[in-house]
Amino acid sequence: QVVGGEALVRWIKPDGSMVFPGDIIPIFEKSGDIITLDYFVYKEVCRYLRARIDAGLGIVPISVNVSTLHLKDDGIMVYLDKLLAEYNIPSQYFELELTENVYIDDVSKALKLLQWCKERGIRMAMDDFGSGYSSLNILDEVPIDVMKIDRSFLKNQSLTDNDKIILSCVINMAGRLAITTVCEGVENAEQLAFLCSAGCDVIQGFYIGRPMPMIAFDKFLEEH
Fold this sequence. Notes:
7-stranded parallel beta sheet, two-stranded antiparallel sheet, about 15% strand, globular, alpha/beta
């Protein structure tokens, strides 16, 4: 069952070729234009959700990424307040994702955004959990709603015993903290079966669906 989606960016050139995020996001972050790009994505998500609501179709929560540059001031909070009000989007269908390193680099500013989300009923996720520095020591400080376990935990197509032990411990810990778990990078049936047995709440990855245009997601949503 489809329980959510994530809004991603792809730059499609006039010749039909595609430029992927890894090639363009660092450039946007360096120039500061990532804020404009993010705002564009947020608005497109609200337009998408509003269109489905107006058409009487079901919707699922859509998550969007937040750059570290957004934490420098309160601009993102002001913008989202206006945007969600303009499109009249129920807050539970809009989710923010900050990478693990963003939480670690500036806990106080991440907490400020998290508190703002809590007051509005917007869920907040820790993206790429386990990809870099250990954030275990701040989980008690930042009451996140969702933990997205980094795809690096599934680097082996066939899971080793150590892989299973580590994943099971992370999923169990998150569950005891009342944090929803999402495992990224699921690419085969073996991984899916293990994650289900380990109690992972949600999976994301090519085994379920590759990144797709909004029109294709509409069809995918209706089928599942």
